[in-house]
Amino acid sequence: MAVVASAPGKVLITGGYLILERPNAGLVLSTNARFYAIVKPLHNEIQPDSWAWAWADVRLTSPQLGREGHYKLALKNLTVQSVSSSSEGGNPFVEYAVQYSVAAAYATLDNNKKEVLHKLLLQGLDITILGCNDFYSYRNEIERRGLPLTPESLASIPPFASITFNTDDGNGDCKPEVAKTGLGSSAAMTTAVVGALLHYLGVIKLSSSKDQQDRKDYTDIDLLHKIAQTAHCIAQGKVGSGFDVSSAVYGSQRYVRFSPEVISSVQVAAQALPAPEVISDILNGNWDHERTEFSLPPLMTLLLGEPGTGGSSTPSMVGAVKKWQKSDPQKSLDTWRRLSEANSQLEIQLNFLSKLAKEQWDAYKSVIDSCSKLRSEKWIEQASEPNKEAVIKALLGAKEAMLGIRYHMRLMGEAAGVPIEPESQTKLLDATLNLEGVLLAGVPGAGGFDAVFAVTLGDSSSNVTKTWSSLNVLALLVKEDPCGVSLESADPRTNEITSAVSSIHIE
């Protein structure tokens, strides 16, 4: 029986750079772009002589990349070895996900269940991974087809389309680096694989997205989170902030990172100890991250745009900022403090708007409807009564806070010598903020040339997608979806309605 799990991509709207250090928080929205992992037995029946085997077969298929990898998983020390003859490198994220998920099964299941586990492993693991088109850039494909740069053109590309590799201009050499849109594909992929494996091996019970609203018990999900964070960090070779994995597991949230020691000790131990011992340390470690529920207030839409200037390297930008912090501690502390204040201010205003929507729905809805048709300098004229005035003041407060965040991020970039908000992005964001119904616009996460985001009121998002298209920016099909890792009922390729079709309404 196949198990299908999915995990969402993310957009970090506040907390770029600061989120790397406790106790700074970031607001991260999970999206309807999801990564899927399908796990099923590789062999229908167990071979009679298989009891003598000391390993399990693992096959990893990535149809979009046209790749298939074959591995042996040693059942004694749970190491994963590639036996593929193909020249392409493996996928360390999935390899560590397999190793640590199986180790977690051995570490947590009782002896009766271990026999079932052993049988499952002897049947081999057949793992297929699929990412929604939104994780990857299809700009070149749209241009090649002579289509306009619009969400409708994106929606016309079949779901889970094969990924074209970036081509170097000039001599036409193909680089194996896939052009991505910055939604956190490796975190979503790792989380989906860990979720599907832990469910398949009987370690946890995943719930479907429908059942998540009334979830009371997070025990299973917390275990999945620890395994996914560990696999992701070790595959990356460094302990990041982990917000991308956390949102892939739990969905939209306000996040404060875990202390890096909980994993860095494992990285050392992983070289020496067998995986089941390492994993016991992980499961019993002091995970001190903080996660609070958060999502955009009602009647607001998240939009993401791809400017098509090619991606930025997040690690090298983070490295430059850290170097600047060391070289000018006084100035950098001051900038960080102000940036942190602006982040908190935005969070306070958005939470207040959610509260007003709950308590004063009619006034809230009326303000959002009227402001969605106006530029922000005209909003205050709509304050005809105290309830409406409160909503408008919070909207303008949120907009003001976002401008403060952008200002301090630019200062930080200039001081560190990296393009956190490059000039081309500044012009684009300023033009976006001038449109009717636009509340926020910024560069997500670490910034750079990867993507821009906007938050719009009511039905005003179509103005933005049209304007972006005229400025050579492709609006993606991504929306906020606050749901985390989920159990799916079927292979997403067989679902009649794909996410692309259901998330687009063509005017």
Structure explained in plain terms:
The structure is a single chain. This protein is α+β, with helices and mostly antiparallel strands and 507 residues long. The protein has three domains: 256 residues, Ribosomal Protein S5, domain 2, CATH 3.30.230.10; 31 residues, no CATH class; 177 residues, GHMP kinase, C-terminal domain (Alpha-Beta Plaits, 2-Layer Sandwich). The protein has 16 helices and 15 strands. Strands 1, 2, 3, 4, 5, 6, 9, 10 and 15 form a nine-stranded mixed β-sheet that branches. The chain has a four-stranded antiparallel β-sheet with strand order 12-13-11-14. The C terminus is likely disordered.
The count of DSSP E runs of length 2 or more, i.e. the number of strands, is 15
N-C termini distance: 41 Å
CATH topology grouping of the largest domain = Ribosomal Protein S5, domain 2
Mean of residue pLDDT? 88
- Report Rg: 23 Å
Query: What's the total helix number?
Result: 16
Helix and strand composition category? alpha+beta
Count of individual domains: 3
Principal-axes geometry comes out as: globular
Helicity, in percent?
Answer: 40-55%
Q: Based on the structure given, which CATH architecture of the largest domain is correct?
A: 2-Layer Sandwich
Pfam families: GHMP_kinases_N
Organism: Arachis duranensis (Wild peanut)
Protein name: phosphomevalonate kinase
GO molecular function: ATP binding; phosphomevalonate kinase activity
